[in-house]
Specification:
There is one protein chain. It is built from 20 helices and 20 strands. With 545 residues, it is of the alpha/beta class. An eight-stranded mixed β-barrel has the order 13-14-15-16-17-18-19-20, surrounded by five helices. A five-stranded parallel β-sheet has the order 2-1-3-4-5, with helices on both faces. Strands 7-8-6-11-12 form a five-stranded mixed β-sheet, sandwiched between helices. Helix content is 46%, strand content 20%.
């Protein structure tokens, strides 16, 4: 079952799970899911953590007491790692960050099923299971947590209390699928024996379930913790394991966190888990020790996920998307040449988001295509209201170039709205334009065949390849504002601007100068031969009247 109040996420989860061979039902809310589960029991639930009414945590609680509760995998688009980790402590078998990706979903489902099957096949002797793992003979998470909690409470507040290491065996699923679960269990048992030889009698070692192990290094100087983690990882990876008639080696990822007296066990575990998350994301280095800098990273991740949630809400409710327009002035005549369309997206409180941060976040989380299409739709709707039939410049992300849906949208909307295509200018940043030359060349040619024009934005801060300028046949060269802001007082910037004007003439382009803040700068630009100017001196971005 896929439970999500977002229809796109719901359908994406359903499609991916069906590709894995599941028969899938969907629910748009926790309440609907509970009703469906009464008549159609599910083995696995992929559930959004935050929904109106009964959220993911509430649904997990409501189904926990059933004779055969389903496996829960949580997904989140607006909370940080702590929120998702909390769901694991409450009985979920995994968590995913939206937008869902098939490879990550497949691996998480395989991990969840492996953990579930091991729990089902474990000894029915609850007393024996209270503190020990039957497969490896090590302590389990419960016993480990209790002992470590006691240790932390017995130490003076703030005193060094060693470090916690979470270590994940990579490749166990491959062994299970290729050689069978018995060989996978042997790999876990061999790993447990290797780790047992690496810890001292005063350390704690446990199997947390699945392919996860935990070690508490007792009385270890914090300056030595990273080297200790590296030694453990290298030892496990260098050990040859005889499995299924072959000799195999395993790979590990490891996250650690330094411990302090009177520290809450949950806080320490959360830090180590976040370090493990970072280690898995960084392919060059598969170990990571939590540091104060990670607090900043965690806050940034939380901020990014909140931004993603705001964008998704805006894509569903286009009233949150407002286009503002800033005039671009012909420096010869003083008249408006065209306007630049600038996105203003409102958060839940009606406050405009930082557009630069918003675009970068959407590029990271795969939403930039949808956002660019929404901006194009909104701007083309406004063309009829632009004063004096002036043109409009629309910014596009380099990540959207090559998107066939964007091409189709531009072509069909210009025709259906009966827009003069020569009034439409698309702006690409220099670095975006050169990211994939062939895709950009095809895109530019296709759109220019309609009669639209192109501007190369932020020129001068990227690659500055004049060969590519010629190859891509742009109409405007837009100088980055950093070269204009102090132009009257910077001889170097003056030389740069003069040079760009001469070069632009060779390639048949008009130069646009950004960040024009005063008449002195405007006069100097005009004297240099710059054709167009943009900045607060001429007008601030505003809604169309």
């Amino acid at each position: 079952m896929v439970v999500d109040d977002g229809p796109i996420e719901r359908m994406a989860g359903k499609s991916m799970l069906e590709k894995l061979g599941f028969s899938v039902i969907t629910a748009a809310s926790g309440e609907e899911a509970l009703r469906l589960l009464e008549d159609q029991p599910a083995d696995l639930v992929l559930c959004d953590i935050s929904m109106p009414g009964i959220g993911g945590m509430g649904l997990l609680e409501a189904t926990r007491g059933r004779p055969q509760p389903p496996l829960f995998i949580m997904s989140t688009s607006h909370n940080d790692a702590e929120h998702a980790v909390a769901s694991l402590r409450n009985g979920a078998y995994g968590y995913l960050t939206k937008p869902l990706r098939f490879d990550t979903l497949r691996a998480t489902v395989a991990d969840a099923i492996a953990k579930y099957e091991e729990q089902k096949s474990a000894s029915v002797n609850e007393m024996a299971l209270a503190h020990h793992d039957t497969l490896t003979g090590l302590m389990n998470k419960s016993g480990f947590s209790k002992l470590l909690t006691d240790r932390l409470r017995d130490m003076p507040e703030g005193a060094s209390a060693g470090a916690l290491l979470l270590l994940k065996i990579v490749g166990l699923n491959h062994i299970n699928h290729s050689y069978g679960r018995n060989e996978g269990n042997k790999a876990l048992q061999l790993s447990a024996r290797i780790l047992s030889r690496l810890v001292r009698s005063s350390d704690l070692l446990a199997r947390f379930g699945g392919d996860m192990f935990a070690i508490h290094f007792n009385a270890v100087d914090h300056g030595q913790v990273e080297q200790r983690i590296l030694n453990v990882a290298e030892t496990v990876e260098s050990t040859k394991m005889p499995l299924a008639g072959e000799v195999l080696t395993l790979t590990v990822v490891a996250g650690g966190a330094c411990a302090y007296g009177m520290m809450e066990m949950e806080d320490l575990l959360n830090r180590a888990d976040f370090a493990l998350h970072l280690a898995r994301d960084r392919s060059r280095n598969r170990i990571h020790l939590y540091s104060e800098a990670d607090d900043v990273h965690k806050r940034e991740l939380s901020h990014q996920l909140n931004t993603v949630a705001v964008v998704r809400a805006a894509l569903r409710d286009t009233q949150r998307i407002a286009m503002h327009y800033q005039p671009i002035i012909n420096l010869d005549t003083g008249t408006i040449s065209h306007y630049e369309a600038l996105l203003r997206l409102m958060d839940d409180n009606g406050t405009p988001c930082n557009t630069g941060e918003l675009v970068k976040t959407c590029e990271v989380f795969g939403l930039i295509g949808e956002l660019d299409r929404a901006v194009v739709k909104a701007t083309l709707r406004d063309v009829a209201r632009v004063p004096a039939n002036a043109g409009i410049a629309i910014n596009l992300s380099g990540k959207s170039i090559g998107d066939p849906d964007l091409l189709h949208l531009i072509e069909t909307r210009i025709k259906s709205l009966d827009i003069d295509p020569s009034r439409i200018i698309f702006e690409l940043t220099e670095t975006a334009a050169f990211y994939n030359l062939e895709e950009v060349r095809h895109f530019v040619r296709r759109i220019k065949s309609l009669g639209c024009r192109f501007a190369l934005d932020d020129f001068g801060v990227g690659f500055s390849s004049f060969y590519y300028i010629k190859e891509l046949d742009f109409d405007y060269l837009k100088l980055d504002g950093s070269f204009i802001a102090k132009l009257p007082h910077s001889p170097n910037d003056q030389v740069f601007v003069r040079a760009m004007v001469e070069i632009s003439r060779v390639f048949g382009m008009d130069v646009i100068a950004e960040w024009v803040e005063d008449q002195e700068t405007a006069d100097m630009l005009h004297g240099f031969g710059v054709a167009l100017g943009q900045g607060y001196h001429f007008g601030k971005p505003a809604l169309l009247s």
